[in-house]
Structure formats: C-alpha cells, structure tokens
C-alpha cells in the first residue's frame, strides 16, 4: 500500500532557490511526487495548518512567515512510513541543531526560517493533504 505525506518548501526555500535541491533529495531517495504546486498560503489556511500552535507566542510570526511569498506544496509517496522518512531527511526543528546531511542541517540557521515542513505522523499527513489538496484526500 502506498503511503503519502505532505511537505512544504517554505517561502525561505523558494526565495533562496533551494526547491530544486530539496525535491532532488526526496526523488533521489526514491519517493514519488504525487502533487506539487507553488502557492501563497493565506492566513486562514495557515491557521488551519498550524492549529496545534495557535496558543504559542510565535504563532503570529509563523503565519506571517509561511504566507510572505509563494511556497512549494508537495505530496510525496513511498512504500511505508513516508512521513518518517521525510522527517529524518529534514532534520530537527532548530536548524542550528539539525545534523549535517539533513535539509535543515545543511541549509538553515534560523528556527523561524527552517526551509521545510513535513507531516509528523499518518493522521497529520491525511489532515494536511486534505487542507491543501482536497481533491487528493
Ligand atoms: P516542525 O516544523 O519541526 O514540525 P513544530 O511543529 O514544533 O516543528 O513547529 C512548527 C514551526 O514553528 C517550526 O517549523 C518553526 C516554528 N517554530 C517552532 N518553535 C519555534 C520557536 N520556539 N520560535 C519560533 N518559531 C518556532
Ligand atoms: Mg510540526
């Protein structure tokens, strides 16, 4: 059974011209592109996507950042635990602590501009794909 997850190359990744490099890594790993679209995320959609962080002090900045310019929205498919494969390749949330070889570890320095989002489990993947690509879910 194919297993899908949701990824965002965030505005900083698009602005810095890193989308090709990020997608290349996922494709080289063997994950398949199911959907991909460059889109500016509006505040309402960002609020739904990041609902779990609504009470955090950085929520306003997070919503502003994710919508400041176009992001590359992606659905990836693999054989099993695709969300986990993607999270491992992304590195931990704070890029200053992400391991070299990970996307955040190789290209990031700021927690507020950490290049990529990846769903944190199968339920999140289904929920997030439903928000951004309702036709796919
Ligand atoms: P992740 O993106 O690794 O799943 P998360 O879900 O905890 O991390 O947080 C979502 C995003 O919010 C994260 O990618 C960057 C931002 N963020 C998290 N913690 C933060 C903090 N302490 N200060 C500023 N931004 C933060
Ligand atoms: Mg998260």
Q: Are any ligands bound, and if so which?
A: 2'-deoxyadenosine-5'-diphosphate, magnesium ion
Shape: globular
Please report the total strand number as a whole number. Answer: 4
**Order of neighbouring strands in the sheet with most strands:** 2-3-1-4
Q: How helix-rich are the residues, as a percent range?
A: 40-55%
Uncertain runs: none
Protein architecture, described:
This protein has a 4-stranded antiparallel beta sheet with strand order 2-3-1-4. 41% of the residues lie in helices and 19% in strands. With 137 residues, the protein is an alpha+beta fold. The site of 2'-deoxyadenosine-5'-diphosphate has 9 residues, from loops.
Topology of helices and strands:
Layout: E1 3-9, H1 11-15, H2 19-29, E2 32-39, H3 43-49, H4 59-66, E3 71-78, H5 82-90, H6 103-107, E4 116-118, H7 122-132
Antiparallel strand pairs: 1-3, 1-4, 2-3
Bound molecules: 2'-deoxyadenosine-5'-diphosphate (DAT) and magnesium ion (MG).
2'-deoxyadenosine-5'-diphosphate (DAT) is lined by residues 53, 58, 62, 93, 111-112, 114, 117, 120.
